[in-house]
Amino acid sequence: MSLIRIGITRVKSFRNYLFLFSIVLLLIACADQSKTSKANIDNQAGTDKSSKENLGIQKVERKLVKSLSTQDSAQQGIALPEVNPLELEGTIAISGTQVVLPISQAIAERFIQDGYPSKINLAGIDTVVGFKLFCQEKKIDIVNAVRPITSQELAACAKSGIQPIGFQIATDAVTIVVSSQNNFVPNTLTRDELAKVFTVQKWSDVNPKWPQELIKRIVPEGAGTGGSVDLFAEAILKGNFSQLTSAPNTISYDFVEQLYSEALINPYMVGFLEYGSYQENREKLRAIAIDKVDPFLPGYPLTRPLYIYADAKAIRKRPELEGFINYYLTYLGQEISNLGYLPVKPTVLDESKTKFLLVLGNKELLKSASKKN
Q1: 89 vs 41: CA distance, rounded Å
Q2: Is the pLDDT of residue 16 over 60?
Q3: What is the mean pLDDT of the chain?
Q4: Cα(341)–Cα(205) distance, rounded to whole angstroms?
């Protein structure tokens, strides 16, 4: 009987031990699960933040932006009201020319980095398609354009009940380039020399001292050119567009990467592209001045103004669109200097800001802004 009791006692003790050991293991597991859950939440928060910053935006190479705390220092000329992107909400759609796309991308990224919680959709097609999407189909809020709106596009907008208002934001320079391997073409050519370069067969036909090699011409074509071929033909070939496109050994590119590739393998190539694209690939290309005038200097003949367009009624009705346009015009100068475009004159930027304030219809705000100028 005593043996039985001892056995029972030992069994009970062993059970108690197992019970206590199980509790300890349970407590450890709970603690580990708590740590894991917290880590997952932290990781998810980081992912959400990254997603919010990049939502709908294709990355562009540029310098780090400043925070909202520096907004006052960004004001030049007329001072627009301060904007807090965190307080705004609603999807914004932007389309039009690829030439303006890097500017709108940079502003949109900055807007999101400063707290905008919603989506900004951007697409680079061309100006004509952009105005069609804006005026006729009413699918976008902002048009990126390399020219002012036409009378036909104005009529289409009026038919749709849209009141387009344009803001000139920058100037672009179509830049003549040769391969960085080219060691015979000087850094500047006259208009007459350029006319020959883009029409004759061999480099020696331009200058007998140059190689008797075929000139490989790479000129833009397609949706993303922004009318650069027309601009070149008007300034260099007296408007003879077909003289350029029908010249022997001339290749048209849809994507500027084709020009970069040719420059790497062919020292006898020549072409033209946007100045910002040239700046990003200076190791492959060498820019050629025209009549000793470099791109963006006064008197350079291949420049064009760049615009964004929006609906005046939509600006008044939609706080997120009003805030984004306001923000765009406020920080434009800082972004332009990073992207290789020529800033507009302060008076031109003030004209855009004035038009924006007139759209809002706040006369007191406009009067106050004018006094600060």
Answers
A1: 25
A2: no
A3: 81
A4: 34
Report phi then psi at 126, rounded to 5: -155, 175
Answer whether residue 51 shows pLDDT above 70: no
Q: What is the 3-state secondary structure (H, E, C) of 132-193?
A: HHHHHCCCCCEEEECCCCCHHHHHHHHHCCCCEEEEEEEEEEEEEEEECCCCCCCCEECHHH
Q: What integer pLDDT is reported at residue 301 of this predicted model?
A: 94
Tell me how crowded residue 54 is: count the other CB atoms within 10 A of its CB. 13
More confident residue, 75 or 348: 348
Q: Which of 163, 133, 113 is nearest to 316 (CA)?
A: 163
DSSP string of 90-132, one letter each residue? --EEEEEBTTTHHHHHHHHHHHHHTT--S-EEE--B-HHHHHI
Long-range pairs for 99-102 at CB < 8 Å and ≥24 separation? 99/144, 99/146, 99/172, 99/224, 99/226, 99/274, 99/306, 100/144, 100/145, 100/146, 100/169, 100/170, 100/306, 100/307, 100/308, 101/144, 102/60, 102/276, 102/339
Find, among 270, 280, 273, the residue nearest to 247 by Cα: 270
The length of the chain in residues reads 373
pLDDT digits (tens, 9 = 90+) for 135-147: 999 999 999 999 9
Whole-angstrom Cα distance, residue 53 to residue 111? 9
Give residue-wise pLDDT tens across range 195-248: 999 999 999 999 999 999 999 999 987 555 567 888 899 999 988 878 888 888
Residues near 105 by Cβ (< 8 Å), separated by ≥ 6?
57, 58, 60, 122
User: What are 311's strand-pairing partners?
Assistant: 164
Secondary structure letter of residue 85 according to DSSP: G
Q: Which two tokens stand for residue 87?
A: 């307080």
99 CA to centre of own chain? 8
Q: Measured between alpha carbons, how far is 364 from 327 in angstroms, rounded to an integer?
A: 20
Residue 9 has pLDDT above 70, yes or no: no
Q: Which of 250, 245, 209 is nearest to 228 (CA)?
A: 245
Q: Given this model, what pLDDT does residue 146 score? A: 92
Question: HSE-up of 293 (CA within 13 Å, CB side)?
Answer: 14
Q: Which amino acid is at 115?
A: G
Q: pTM for this one?
A: 0.74
Nearest to 190 by CA among 91, 69, 310, 288: 288
